[in-house]
Amino acid sequence: SVMRLAQTTCDAALLSVRRGASALCLMREEGNHPLRSHALVAGQSHPLGVGAGSLAMLAALPRDEAETILRATGPVVAARYPALTPERMRDLLARTRAEGVALNPGLVIEGSWGLGIALHHPDGRLVGALSIATIEARMRPDRLPDLTRLLRAEAARIEARLAQPTKDRLA
Question: Cα 12 to chain center, whole Å?
Answer without folding.
Answer: 12
